[in-house]
Structures are given as structure tokens and as C-alpha cells.
Amino acid sequence: MNILSLFVLIPVVMLLGLWIARNLNQVRGVMVIGSSFLLALSVYLTVAFIQARQNGDTSAMLFTYSTPWFKPLNIAYSTGVDGISVVMLLLSSIIVFTGTFASWQLKPMTKEYFLWFTLLSTGVYGFFICTDLFTMFMFYEVALIPMYLLIGVWGSGQKEYAAMKLTLMLMGGSALLIIGILGIYYFSGATTMNITEIAAMHNIPVDIQKVFFPFIFIGFGVLGALFPFHTWSPDGHASAPTAVSMLHAGVLMKLGGYGCFRIAMYLLPEAAHELSWIFLILTTISVVYGALSACVQTDLKYINAYSSVSHCGLVLFALLMMTKTACTGAILQMLSHGLMTALFFALIGMIYGRTHTRDIRKLGGLMKIMPFLSVGYVIAGLANLGLPGFSGFIAEMTIFVGSFENNDVFHRTCTIIACTSIVVTAVYILRVVGKILFEKVADPHYEQLTDATWDERFSVCCLIFCVAGLGMAPLWVSNVINGGVSSVLSVINF
């Protein structure tokens, strides 16, 4: 069996195990064993990929496998990974593993919650391993559909509104995607849906590319919080349960940036060059607007949600710069933001579970009451604002240096404007940290609250280790993704 298919098979087995489970301990056991296997498999895949590259395998995609699925439309179950896919699978496994422990105490309907959570992760894994356009789209939809129930049933606040808004906007983006995918298929000759084969043919007329590039880029950009299609994101994040927010912001939004790079820009390169200026303006707005919006929020989840709009906008911004350094920074930013925002949402969920409020005006003195969670929040904040030694610094500096390599006025002006988000990020992060952690205790009842439990400490420590590890030893990740970035850019910068 192809090793990549295990990333889909294991979650399917987990779904069966959860269906059979009869009590809470069995449900937890299935999730811990399954997520541990997925994490171990992603680590093994990363090591195997590095070894294959070191042994001289220069193929664009490794561990490939293909079997026909629907021959009339040349649809196949095709899998393969490059360095970008490998690190995305590793990120997904880390978030699923830590999200399991972050949801350890979740009630009610724990079994049903984990069933939908596992189905969501199945779609994410399938999307990153597939190289067939239609199969990728199918897994993309599998990843989106469970979000409605996970937020609508287990969420908080205006959960029904947030779930419906998220579903309608993402389904609208999906409608654009299917139009773009079918357009690429038919105008490339209608002989294959394999991404690498279509890219190699390079036979889609420029005028046709200009028609379908906006469909694909906006379709994926909706999930990547592209301005002005980002409005679903803050409401969805604020209402989602903790682990869903972790997976949603940490991994699901990365499908947007990955799809824009792998499909829109890779398969429609001429249109990417000619229309990039439009989307570059929109992403620059996303970066600055998201940071400024976070400054005026009073809800911890909304602050982090608007921060995610800014940081995910930075991913699309870097990709559109189309330099190797900037695109490498974009992938590093996907990893960094995925880990940081998962840590943030985990900590916010743990604080909310004790104080029953996310309003920073009603919080204070938490450093004295729950020091472990508070220190974790400080570390997450410092990583978010780009402190050297953490993942945020490496990713953002790589992006801005790579973006400035474009020596025209337009690109450099956009880069300078985007750089202002660093200062704004420091403002809202330090404001929140000072308010909720170091001011006097806002409510006498908070004095009776407890600090993190063992499962929460384990989840937080794993994420902190990854955030610090990527910040202090980023070179190996850069080496892994280098080949994938170069391969895609060789087609884009034809």
C-alpha cells in the first residue's frame, strides 16, 4: 500500500473505532492512539522524504501512486508529495494530536464531536496528499462540511449565525473553484486532471488563464481570509470550540494559501503575473486591516481571529511576490502561524473554561491565579509579534526580505506598508498581555480558580516546543521545502 494513503486510511479506521466505542475512555483511547499514529507517520514521512532527496531523487513529487477512478473525465486517485506537502502534513498531525488533548474534558456528546473532528482531519490530509484536481476538490469539501456542525452544535455565542455564515461563504468559494477546475481541465486538452501533467503541458491560452485565474485564486482566497472575503473568519473562530479553532486556524486556512500556490499560480502562470497586482493590493489591505482590527477588539478570540486574518494575508502576499525567498517565507509562515494560533486558541479555550468570559475588560491578574497558562500566553504573544528565537520572526523576516527583492516601486511600496503590521501586532499583543495577566484581579471569585490540568499542560508544552523549535532551528524546514518551492516557481517564472 502507498504510504500516503495511510493518512486517509487511519482517520477512516478512527471513525470506525469511534462509532464502536461505548464509553468516554474508549473514545479518548481511539483518538489518542489514532492521532499518535498519524503524528508518527508524518515524522516517518518527513525523514523518508529527506533521505530520498539526499540520495539524489530529484522528482517533483515523491511516493507517487495513481489509479483510475472515473475514466470519462480522466479523474484518478493520484497521490504524491513534495517538501511543501510534507511539512503541511506534519503541521496537520501536530494540531490534530494536541487538539485531542485540548478537547479532553469536552462535553456533551464527546463521541459525536470527535467523529466530526476526525472527518474534518480526513479531508485536510486527503487534500495535501492528492495531485488530482478533482480528488483534491473532493477532500477540500470533506474538510469544510463538518465545520457547520462542529460550530453550530458545540460552539458558543452566536454559533448558529457563525456556522451558517462560514458555510455559505466557503461554499460560495467552492462554487468558484469547481468552475475554475473544470475550465483548467477542458482548456488544457481534457486529457488529465493531474496537476504536474497539466503544468508540464503548459498549453492553456493566456486569455483563458485570465478568465479562470480569479475563480481559483478567490475560491481558495476565501478560505485564506483574503480581503474582502474574510468576514466569516472572525465569527467562525469566536464561536468554534477550542480544538476546532485550533484545526481551523492552524490547518484549514492553510488550504487556501496552498491551493493558491499549487493550483492557481502553478497552472495559470501567465495570468498570475498579469493579475497579481490586483490581489497584491487586496492582500496588503488584509495584512494591515487585520492587525488594526485586532487592536479594537475586546474578545480574546476575536483578537486572535483578526490576527489570523493579518497573518494569513501575509502568506498570500508573499506568494504573489513570486521570489524564491518570499515564497519560502510564505510556507514558513503557514507553519509558524499554524502552530502559534493553535497555541493561542488552546490557551484562550482553557482560560474561558475557568473564567467563563473572553472579555479582556473582565479579566485581570491571571498571572497570579494560573501562572502556567499565563506564561504560555506570553510565549504565544511574543511569537506572534515576531520576537527573535520564535517561529514568527523567521517567517516574517524571510517574507519581507524576499518581497523587497522585487526592485520596482509598486512591490516595494506594498512591502513597506505590510511591514507596518509588525508594529501594530506588538500594540495589541502587549495590550492584551498587560491587561489580562498583570493588572489587579478583576473578580474575587477568580482567586479560587485552578491552573492547567495534565492534559492541558501536555498540549500547551507540545505546541510551545514546536514554536520555539522552528524559531531556533528553521534551516532543516527550509531545506525540505526548498525543492518544492523551486519546482513551482520554475513554472510560474517561466
From TrEMBL:
Recorded topology in the membrane: Multi-pass membrane protein
Location (main, coarse): membrane
InterPro entries: NADH_Q_OxRdtase_chainM/4 (IPR010227), NADH_UbQ_OxRdtase (IPR003918), ND/Mrp_TM (IPR001750)
Keyword Cell cycle annotated: no
Record-annotated NADH:quinone oxidoreductase/Mrp antiporter transmembrane domain positions: 131-412
Spans traversing the lipid bilayer: 6-24, 31-52, 75-101, 113-131, 166-187, 211-230, 275-296, 303-322, 334-352, 372-395, 415-438, 458-477
Location in or out of the cell: Endomembrane system; Membrane
Highest taxon listed in the record's lineage: Bacteria
UniProt keywords, alphabetically: Membrane, Transmembrane, Transmembrane helix
Pfam families, A to Z: Proton_antipo_M
Keyword Metal-binding: no
Family stated for the protein in its record: Belongs to the complex I subunit 4 family.
Name the record gives this protein: NADH-quinone oxidoreductase subunit M
Species, as recorded: Xylanibacter muris
